[in-house]
Amino acid sequence: MVKHNRFYRKVWASKSDFTGALAMWLVKQSPYIVPDNLSVCIIKFYNKLDEIATFDELGMAEVELSTLTSKVDSILESIPEIVQLNERKNKREGIGFSSRYSKKPEPDDDFIDITAVAQDITCCFAEREDAQCWLDKDKTD
User: Fold this and answer.
1) Residue 93: which residues within 8 A CB-CB, separation 6 or more?
2) What is the distance in angstroms between the CA of the first residue and the CA of the last residue of the chain?
3) Which of 16, 24, 30, 139 has the most CB atoms at less than 10 Å from its CB?
4) SS3 call for 45
Protein backbone atom coordinates (compact mmCIF):
# COMPACT_ATOMS: atom_id res chain seq x y z
CA MET A 1 0.00 0.00 0.00
CA VAL A 2 1.36 3.40 -0.97
CA LYS A 3 0.87 6.15 1.56
CA HIS A 4 0.01 9.64 0.41
CA ASN A 5 2.58 12.39 0.98
CA ARG A 6 0.13 14.30 3.15
CA PHE A 7 0.73 11.76 5.92
CA TYR A 8 4.43 12.65 5.99
CA ARG A 9 4.06 16.37 6.45
CA LYS A 10 4.93 18.47 9.45
CA VAL A 11 2.48 20.74 11.22
CA TRP A 12 2.88 23.49 13.78
CA ALA A 13 1.24 22.94 17.16
CA SER A 14 1.26 24.61 20.54
CA LYS A 15 1.35 22.93 23.92
CA SER A 16 -2.25 24.04 24.45
CA ASP A 17 -3.19 22.42 21.12
CA PHE A 18 -1.95 19.14 22.58
CA THR A 19 -3.63 19.51 25.98
CA GLY A 20 -6.84 20.71 24.35
CA ALA A 21 -6.89 17.71 22.01
CA LEU A 22 -6.23 15.34 24.91
CA ALA A 23 -9.03 16.85 27.00
CA MET A 24 -11.45 16.74 24.07
CA TRP A 25 -10.77 13.08 23.24
CA LEU A 26 -10.77 11.88 26.84
CA VAL A 27 -14.17 13.55 27.33
CA LYS A 28 -15.54 12.28 24.00
CA GLN A 29 -14.50 8.70 24.74
CA SER A 30 -15.51 8.68 28.38
CA PRO A 31 -18.77 7.02 29.45
CA TYR A 32 -18.99 9.80 32.07
CA ILE A 33 -19.46 13.53 31.59
CA VAL A 34 -15.97 14.15 33.03
CA PRO A 35 -13.36 11.36 33.16
CA ASP A 36 -11.68 10.68 36.49
CA ASN A 37 -8.67 12.88 37.28
CA LEU A 38 -9.02 14.86 34.05
CA SER A 39 -7.01 17.84 35.30
CA VAL A 40 -4.27 15.54 36.66
CA CYS A 41 -4.12 13.74 33.29
CA ILE A 42 -3.79 17.02 31.40
CA ILE A 43 -1.10 18.43 33.72
CA LYS A 44 0.99 15.25 33.61
CA PHE A 45 0.63 15.09 29.81
CA TYR A 46 1.66 18.76 29.53
CA ASN A 47 4.76 18.09 31.61
CA LYS A 48 5.87 15.37 29.16
CA LEU A 49 5.26 17.23 25.90
CA ASP A 50 8.98 17.87 25.42
CA GLU A 51 9.23 14.15 24.61
CA ILE A 52 7.23 14.87 21.44
CA ALA A 53 9.10 17.90 20.10
CA THR A 54 11.25 20.88 20.96
CA PHE A 55 8.93 23.76 21.75
CA ASP A 56 10.10 27.33 21.20
CA GLU A 57 9.76 30.24 23.63
CA LEU A 58 6.16 30.73 22.46
CA GLY A 59 5.31 27.09 23.21
CA MET A 60 5.15 26.12 19.51
CA ALA A 61 6.75 23.15 17.77
CA GLU A 62 6.82 21.64 14.33
CA VAL A 63 5.71 18.01 14.60
CA GLU A 64 5.87 15.16 12.11
CA LEU A 65 2.42 13.59 11.63
CA SER A 66 3.82 10.19 10.64
CA THR A 67 5.41 9.64 14.07
CA LEU A 68 3.05 11.65 16.24
CA THR A 69 0.67 8.83 17.22
CA SER A 70 3.42 6.61 18.57
CA LYS A 71 4.99 9.49 20.52
CA VAL A 72 1.66 10.53 22.05
CA ASP A 73 0.74 6.91 22.82
CA SER A 74 4.06 6.40 24.60
CA ILE A 75 3.40 9.40 26.83
CA LEU A 76 -0.22 8.41 27.53
CA GLU A 77 0.84 4.91 28.56
CA SER A 78 3.41 6.36 30.97
CA ILE A 79 0.82 8.30 32.98
CA PRO A 80 -0.87 6.07 35.59
CA GLU A 81 -4.06 8.19 35.76
CA ILE A 82 -4.52 7.84 32.01
CA VAL A 83 -3.76 4.12 32.02
CA GLN A 84 -6.40 3.73 34.72
CA LEU A 85 -8.98 5.24 32.34
CA ASN A 86 -8.23 2.32 30.01
CA GLU A 87 -9.64 -0.15 32.56
CA ARG A 88 -13.26 -0.87 33.33
CA LYS A 89 -14.21 0.22 36.82
CA ASN A 90 -16.14 -2.98 37.42
CA LYS A 91 -13.20 -5.11 36.19
CA ARG A 92 -15.50 -7.15 33.91
CA GLU A 93 -13.78 -8.76 30.94
CA GLY A 94 -15.08 -9.56 27.48
CA ILE A 95 -16.78 -7.52 24.82
CA GLY A 96 -19.29 -4.93 25.88
CA PHE A 97 -20.32 -1.42 24.94
CA SER A 98 -21.88 1.41 26.86
CA SER A 99 -21.90 5.16 26.73
CA ARG A 100 -22.96 7.93 29.03
CA TYR A 101 -26.39 7.69 27.38
CA SER A 102 -26.83 3.93 27.85
CA LYS A 103 -29.22 2.63 30.48
CA LYS A 104 -27.58 -0.81 30.47
CA PRO A 105 -24.86 -1.84 30.79
CA GLU A 106 -23.67 0.61 33.40
CA PRO A 107 -20.97 3.12 32.44
CA ASP A 108 -18.61 1.25 34.77
CA ASP A 109 -18.60 -1.41 32.07
CA ASP A 110 -16.85 0.89 29.58
CA PHE A 111 -13.35 2.34 29.31
CA ILE A 112 -11.32 4.85 27.31
CA ASP A 113 -9.18 3.34 24.55
CA ILE A 114 -5.82 5.05 25.07
CA THR A 115 -4.38 4.05 21.69
CA ALA A 116 -7.46 5.48 19.98
CA VAL A 117 -6.97 8.74 21.92
CA ALA A 118 -3.41 8.99 20.56
CA GLN A 119 -4.69 8.42 17.01
CA ASP A 120 -7.48 10.95 17.47
CA ILE A 121 -5.02 13.60 18.66
CA THR A 122 -2.94 13.07 15.51
CA CYS A 123 -6.10 13.29 13.40
CA CYS A 124 -6.93 16.65 15.03
CA PHE A 125 -3.69 18.11 13.73
CA ALA A 126 -4.01 16.50 10.29
CA GLU A 127 -7.62 17.67 9.89
CA ARG A 128 -6.73 21.18 11.01
CA GLU A 129 -3.96 21.33 8.41
CA ASP A 130 -6.35 20.00 5.73
CA ALA A 131 -8.91 22.64 6.71
CA GLN A 132 -6.29 25.41 6.55
CA CYS A 133 -5.26 24.29 3.05
CA TRP A 134 -8.89 24.43 1.98
CA LEU A 135 -9.33 27.90 3.51
CA ASP A 136 -6.20 29.11 1.74
CA LYS A 137 -7.11 27.60 -1.65
CA ASP A 138 -8.11 30.90 -3.24
CA LYS A 139 -5.30 33.01 -1.76
CA THR A 140 -2.49 34.20 -3.96
CA ASP A 141 0.99 35.02 -2.73
Assistant:
1) none
2) 35
3) 30
4) helix
Q: Which tens digits make up the pLDDT trace of 51-78?
A: 999 999 999 999 998 899 999 999 999 9
Query: How many other C-beta atoms can be found within 10 angstroms of the C-beta atom of residue 61?
Result: 20
Task: Decide if 106 contacts 66 (C-beta within 8 A).
Answer: no
Residue 96 to residue 33: CA distance in whole angstroms: 19
Residue 60: strand, helix, or coil: strand
Residues 6+ apart with CB under 8 A from 77: 83, 114
**Residues 97-124 as b or e (16 or more Cβ within 10 Å = b):** ebeeeeeeeebebbbbebeebbbbbbbb
Residue-wise pLDDT for 127-139, tens only, equals 766 656 655 677 7
20-49 per-position pLDDT tens digit? 999 999 999 888 889 989 999 999 999 999
**Contact status, residue 55 vs residue 21, Cβ threshold 8 Å:** no
